[in-house]
Amino acid sequence: MTPEDLLYTKEHEWLRIAGETGTIGITDHAQDELGEVVYVELPKVGDTFDAGQTFGSVESVKAVSELFIPVSAEVVEVNSELADSPEKINEDPYGQGWMIRVRLRDKNQAGELMSAKEYDEYTKEE
Amino acid sequence: MPVEYSGISKEHTAVRTAAGLFDVSHMGEFEVRGRQALQIIQLISANDAAKLVDGQAQYSAMAYSEGTVIDDLLVYRHNSEHFMLVVNAANIQKDFDWITSHNRFDATIENVSDRVALLAVQGPKAIDILQPLITRRLDEIASYHFTRHALVGVDAIVSRTGYTGEDGFEIYVSAERAESIWNAILEAGRPFGLIPAGLGARNTLRLEAKMLLYGNDMDETTTLLEAGLGWIVKFDKGDFIGREALLKQKQEGMKRRLAGFEMLGRDIARDHYPVFVDGREAGHVTSGSPSITLKKNIGLAYLPVDHASVGSRLQVSVRGRMCDAQVVPTPFYKRKER
């Protein structure tokens, strides 16, 4: 279930690295816990963040959850589809539900993140 | 009761368009019996229980002598010497202690909460779903009336009440029979689109209908009048606890009152977010949520009375950002008469 080519945070974000860029979203487990997403607040292109900082929030009917950036990065693209179709986060969290593309500022930080297997263990214990 | 079964929006929409089944057995029930059962109820309840006839229910609230809210409740009259009070789960012990401490009448009060289960069938199809399960004609039971009758062979109180803003019924049965009744209703309702509904949908439904939630929209710090519950405060019925303070507030005027608002942008106001009026913090969101029926983001907050009329502007601080909102008429949602 959990894609093996991605890296994961304890706050349930995923990161897909391709060269110097990364794509970020929330996990299937996270969307399932949240329930139907009704609104996403995302940063602007050009915004920069340090690893662990809040880069936005995702709102479901029942709750709001902050989004934490897995690695230090600069935003290069935002998934504008989500403004009108936030339900894509529920339907396809690892695909069309992606949130931002970033330029990595320190690739080494990715070493701190979990593998799919580690993340699955983590969510089982949680 | 879980927060959701199949998803809050789906459950919410089922109740607005077909029907939903809720297990609200956590609610508390007290039996009040005796020659002076009415007197103790009249003392602790702001509404006028003397107006009730057998088989009728009434929304009311209990107030402290300051006029602030102990709890809201339903008063059911079986007969002149037998009533049932239905109170909020979190307040069962507090309410029971309060009522018994004021009981200087020829009346007994029994807490039967653990023995009584409560299922709610809510939605426009509720009556069609339940009718085959009971021999009593349900269309003869008016809103806020009830019957005590067998439902699929089980002794039940079937009451045309609810907490969703839709037509529907609340069914009181003994706890050990609740599961079989639940299953029977689920089975009977399936062809009509009935699905189980959880606490999440219960909250979004009741908020759209501006039915207040104790602990959020009113509590021991807000008076019944400030909460907009003046319509259940019957000053002319005789003495009751809180009457004097509430009468004084009515004559002198309120400083604040509970108002419904709608967010003007896409941000969602959540419970406890700070509310600002003219740049000054005026209170907080007592209940806030997306409205699934209206596709807007709505909420309730106590506002200064001169800023609480329809059209007045306010700001809600959404995680540090000031977001505009506007007072709107309530209830946010009102069902069409069918």
Structure description:
- The complex is a heterodimer of chains A (126) and B (338).
- Helices cover 20% and strands 35% of the residues of chain A.
- Chain A is built from four helices and nine strands.
- In chain A, strand 6 and strand 7 form a beta hairpin.
- Chain B is an alpha+beta fold and 338 residues long.
- Chain B folds into two domains: 198 residues, Gyrase A, domain 2 (2-Layer Sandwich); 84 residues, Aminomethyltransferase beta-barrel domains (Elongation Factor Tu (Ef-tu), domain 3).
- Chain B contains seven helices and 17 strands.
- In chain B, helix 1 packs across helix 6.
- Chain B is globular, with a radius of gyration of 20 Å.
- The model of chain B has no long low-confidence stretch (mean pLDDT 97).
- The chains are: A alpha+beta (126), B alpha+beta (338).
- At the A-B interface, strand 4 of A face loops of B.
- Give the averaged pLDDT of chain B, no decimals: 97
Report the radius of gyration of chain B as a whole number of Å: 20 Å
Shape of chain B: globular
The radius of gyration computed from the alpha-carbon positions of chain A, rounded to a whole number of angstroms, is: 13 Å
Main β-sheet, spatial strand arrangement of chain A: 1-2-3-9-8-5
**Mean pLDDT, all residues of chain A:** 95
Order of helices and strands of chain B: HEEHEEEHEEHEEEHEHHEEEEEE
